[in-house]
Write a structure and sequence with these properties.
- The structure is a single chain.
- By secondary structure, this protein is an alpha/beta fold.
- A five-stranded parallel β-sheet has the order 2-3-1-4-5.
- It is globular, with a radius of gyration of 18 Å.
- About 30% of the residues are buried.
- About 15% of the residues have low confidence.
């Protein structure tokens, strides 16, 4: 049992969506003169090979916002790991932290992420602490391409102050906590496949940077494999 529900539910694979056939048909569409401006998108989707694009980074880095827009550009499904956890638990993330503690949450988080990775390719936004789990890092390396949205301290604090649902920042000194998280997590995030700077610019600019960096990474990977 997990969060008061049967663990089998967390591991149950999603049924193929109604638009999956359309998605597969789109992936297989050959590049034409009119589609050349979308070469990066074509490269990404055609070379995923069943993998998901997994966004990692600290709270406030923009994983959910960027993830939704990136998924729309790539015509892929989008999922937010925290939202999926809340659906399974019937509770919000802050409630889970308060009632059961962080480790209980992390255990369930790993299960949910593994289940999502075993379903169809998608853009997946993960919680800030998810990538700190060796089990989760291994699952992402096996079934995904990890993209670290790297933001500096000032930008992170500017963004997280707008929301009050950050369990780890419910303290008298949230800035000290953020500095501690950066020191602990950034070296681990550095193991991701690629890094994209998350700056204080329009979100679409970050999405373009993600697409360009992902396409370059996959082209280099294809060259190395040939």
């Amino acid at each position: 049992m997990f969060y008061g529900i049967n663990c089998d539910f967390l591991l149950k694979q999603e049924k193929p969506r109604a638009n999956e056939a359309q998605y597969l048909n789109w992936v297989q569409t050959p590049v034409t003169e009119t589609s050349k401006p979308n070469d990066n998108i074509t490269t990404i989707v055609s070379q995923l090979n069943g993998r998901s694009i997994v966004l990692i980074g600290l709270m406030g880095a923009g994983k959910t916002t960027i993830g939704r827009r990136l998924a729309k550009k790539l015509k892929l499904p989008f999922a937010d790991a925290d939202t999926e956890i809340e659906k399974a638990a019937g509770k919000t993330v802050p409630e889970i932290f308060e009632e059961h503690g962080e480790q209980y949450f992390r255990d369930g988080e790993s299960r949910v992420i593994e289940r999502l990775l075993n379903e169809q390719p998608r853009v997946l936004a993960t919680g800030g602490g998810a990538y700190m789990s060796e089990q989760t890092r291994t699952a992402i390396a096996d079934k995904g391409i990890s993209v670290w949205l790297k933001a500096d301290f000032d930008l992170l604090m500017k963004r997280v102050r707008k929301r009050s649902n950050r369990p780890l920042l419910k303290t008298d000194d949230p800035e000290a906590v953020m500095h501690k998280l950066i020191a602990e997590r950034y070296p681990v995030y550095g193991n991701s496949n690629i890094t994209v700077e998350s700056k204080d610019v329009p979100h679409d600019q970050i999405v373009v940077a993600c697409i360009e960096t992902l396409a370059d990474h996959l082209r280099q990977q294809e060259t190395a494999d040939t």
